[in-house]
Structure prediction request, 258 residues.
Amino acid sequence: MIQLNYKDPRPIYEQVMDSLRRLVVSGVMKPDEKLPSVRELATSLTINPNTIQRAYRELETEGYIYTVSGRGSFVSPKDYVKDIYKESLLETFGKTVSELFALGENPETLTKQMQTLYGKETISHDSDQ
Amino acid sequence: MIQLNYKDPRPIYEQVMDSLRRLVVSGVMKPDEKLPSVRELATSLTINPNTIQRAYRELETEGYIYTVSGRGSFVSPKDYVKDIYKESLLETFGKTVSELFALGENPETLTKQMQTLYGKETISHDSDQ
DNA sequence: TAACTGTATTAACACATATAATACACTTAA
DNA sequence: TTAAGTGTATTATATGTGTTAATACAGTTA
Prediction:
């Protein structure tokens, strides 16, 4: 469910956050579904519980999960989670596009590039891969 | 010319790299133009020469600048510099757009967003701001 | 009550960042 | 040739972050 990459320069707790964020946003994990307990996930990834605790704490701060004392951590309501994630992606999108324009790129080229990627996205529904 | 932000969690040498990369790519610094010496830039930013040295070393590895022993560091040829920077931006662009599509965003919305940003970019030429 | 939750604390270690103080080889101009 | 300016390398030190480790505590649930 979660893959750690020790060649990745990013800290482990960030990699865990990324994985969980994606699982939550993509809908693989449903709203109000219980996440594995801190100790459980730490054991299965062979890392320290404190590291998982930190990932959970920061994911809660970002709004992707919520915690009930003594019961566990759970996935936040779907709409909210998608919204905050999309917002962060759109911010990156804006910054990147602005820089590309500043370097002389024009909207037409980027639109074409986008349509190619959109093709791949939709075609994949009919593919058996 | 270069602004350091100590609230920024990124290391100083990366902030210096970012600033110089932008100056080089945007054309503010011309090809074969001499960069300030390691000691000179360190003094003007009130940081350690070793930190600047690291920024220069890594910028050379990335191809943005080149060094002549005993003479100094210089801006790489323009086309090459723009190419490698654009390539990295386009990679970010592709990843971001793919994720947005996966979340149900469609090309039309993003294209509109892009055109808004392109407007701002071109209008600024006529503005007196 | 026992076993599970999240949370907090303290200590120890590794690593990256940054500073500091030198030293060396090369280039350039006086 | 010499002096001053280049980049580069080395060693030591301090600091902060990431991670592990060992506990401890309060709330929940069966």
Observations:
- Residues 124-129 of chain A have pLDDT under 50 and may be disordered.
- The CA atoms of residues 54 and 69 of chain A lie 16 Å apart.
- Chain A touches chain B at residues 25-26, 82, 85-86, 89-90, 92-94, 96-103, 105-107, 110-111, 113-115, 117-118, 120-121 (CB under 8 Å).
- The domain at 12-76 of chain A is CATH 1.10.10.10 (Arc Repressor Mutant, subunit A).
